[in-house]
Design brief:
2 copies of one chain form a homodimer. Chain A is of the alpha/beta class and about 350 residues long. Chain A is about 45% helix and about 15% strand. In chain A, strands 3-2-1-4-11-10-5-6-9-7-8 form an 11-stranded mixed beta sheet, with helices on both faces. In chain A, strand 10 and strand 11 form a beta hairpin. The longest helix of chain A is centred in the last third of the chain and has 27 residues.
């Protein structure tokens, strides 16, 4: 298995992606190879810093251009044919890599993946699937930004894809699927959620009904489905709230020597909490529904997040997430085409 | 001025609402009277616990029925004509009270207010307006649950009403209005937000453009406008995240004597943080757009939240929020009817 990694995407390049790649090579199972995609001279130079690193499983693939974080995805797609994103996706399209990971411009990674790899047959819209930490384990939330103005059929497919990802990559045996809404009753919500609730209830999924925003973090469901607008709002809000609280706490602590001493005593607890709620642990957000494996990481991802995205990509390929999605969507369509459930 | 308070609404009745009422009488300006609405015998009995309380500004109004928290709002409206909610709203409708506050069944308070008081002329849909804490001050978010499937004209009116509430009740001189979306550019978002962005940009409001979920807490805007579906998800998520983090912290601390000592040293800091981010400080959510003053409190509101809701109701009446809304909506409609901006 070969996994391509964009080392020119993210806030600190190429250092952070390369450090993540080295961690993955050193710490994970040895059944994959990495393609580092970007400026070959810089990559080779940076790799030399790691004394004694076994580079036999690392290949460097040159890409002359970089898509900037603020750049328009459609412009990047049109003009930068040699960007690390374009080259990385092309490796997959040509069968030279099995997966692609990038912490670069999300829109560009999404557009290039869709253009270069296409959709899985039967899937109407791909979705970005984010793995949220919960008090007990983790929860897959999708869509978190690939789509807006979704229709019920899209949300049904997101639920199927999220459920398969939870099973095949996170190892949940019968993932509980919740529909994000504003009340538990099936009648609560907007037109989209009320109609989707009926589709999900009639599906073979382990649908547990509507869930509310806070339920995500309490592990009420293994998969939470929503339109990409509300999913993206939830994602950005959640990321920021933790930082905000910790920042506020630190400012208050600075002002008091007693509090500073208390903080030192609590350091282990804070470190543990940071790890529990740290997005870096959960390794990027797969773009589900494309005919390939693309994992999108946060621009500010630390090396550990890149390492964990490689771990997720490896499992997605190994456990044939796309093949299962393709089969289950086909089966479900065949079942329902006879009685018009999906019309 | 007379403010009616539902003492039968909330998780602990009538104790918590009555305690809040007593705090308001003792601590706030003395220019208002309170009507405590509920079981008159229980209210009179509970009031006796407060030795030396001056009850000259407190009136008891009997209401024989109680709307339960889980009850269907439409059923409550139809069947419980003598509920504390129905009696409290009727006091306003008959001109015997200027405002009504309840921590009871939100749907029932909303439906009864709308039925009993009607809308302000020109307002298409009322909205529930929640006051969020921010690192610097507070931010008014609306709608947080009165509406789903909103149209751009509704969001424009929410922005006008939120802006007036921020100015007249919270004292913000020229409230910065943000539109909740998934990116700063006007083109980012779903159909609703893209269309609303144009309406807001053309309005006389101090519109600062799109904001993201996390911006709410960082005080980027004084007013954040959204459809009630996403607003309700954000509200419930935010309330729960803080509790979740503090709960997690406490569990970890219990397991370690050193951490427990550190926690004691940090107690002042935690108390301060709790106060900064405590919803109780911000005194309930007004239902804006109805031809009256209704403030909805969280079912779990402590006495301080009830006291602060009374403070907000007093300011809303004193500073004529509804009169200003009525005038500004009328002016804006007249301005735009000539050039078809709102068609």
């Amino acid at each position: 298995m070969k996994i391509a990694l964009d080392v020119m995407g993210g806030d600190q390049i190429p250092s952070v992606p390369i450090k993540g790649a080295v961690q993955a090579i050193q710490e994970l199972e040895a059944d994959f190879e990495l393609c580092l995609v970007g400026d070959d001279t810089r990559i080779a130079g940076y790799l030399e810093r790691f004394d004694g690193l076994d580079t036999s499983r690392i290949e460097i693939v040159h890409a002359a251009e970089v898509v900037e974080m603020g750049e328009s995805p459609s412009a990047a797609l049109r003009k930068k044919k040699n960007s690390s994103i374009a080259v990385g996706i092309a490796l997959q399209a040509e069968g030279k890599a099995d997966a692609f990971i990038s912490a670069g411009n999300t829109g560009a990674v999404m557009a290039t993946s869709l253009r270069g790899l296409g959709r899985i047959g039967g899937i109407v819209r791909p979705a970005i699937c984010s793995v949220f930490p919960t008090t007990s384990s983790s929860c897959v939330v999708l869509d978190v930004g690939a789509n807006v103005d979704s229709k019920p059929i899209h949300l049904l497919q997101f639920a199927m894809m999220g459920s398969i990802y939870s099973r095949q990559v996170l190892g949940t045996s019968s993932p509980r699927v919740g529909l994000l809404s504003i009340g538990e009753e099936p009648s609560k919500g907007d037109e989209l959620t009320v109609a989707t609730n009926k589709l999900l209830a009639a599906s073979p999924l382990n649908f547990i009904g509507n869930v509310e925003g806070g339920d995500i973090f309490e592990g009420e469901a293994d998969v939470v489905v929503c339109d990409g607008f509300v999913g993206n709002v939830v994602l950005k809000l959640s990321e920021r709230v933790l930082n905000l609280l910790v920042g506020h706490l630190k400012n208050q602590i600075k002002a008091s020597p007693l509090a500073a001493m208390g903080f030192l005593m609590l350091k282990g607890v804070f470190d543990d909490m940071k790890q529990t709620f740290d997005y870096a642990e959960y390794g990027g957000a797969p773009l589900l529904g494309i005919d390939g494996t693309t994992i999108i990481c946060h621009g500010g991802s630390p090396p550990r997040a890149i390492r964990n995205a490689i771990r997720s990509a490896r499992l997605a390929v190994l456990n044939k997430v796309n093949k299962v999605i393709s089969e289950e969507v086909k089966n479900y369509q065949m079942e329902n085409s006879t009685n018009g459930n999906l019309s």
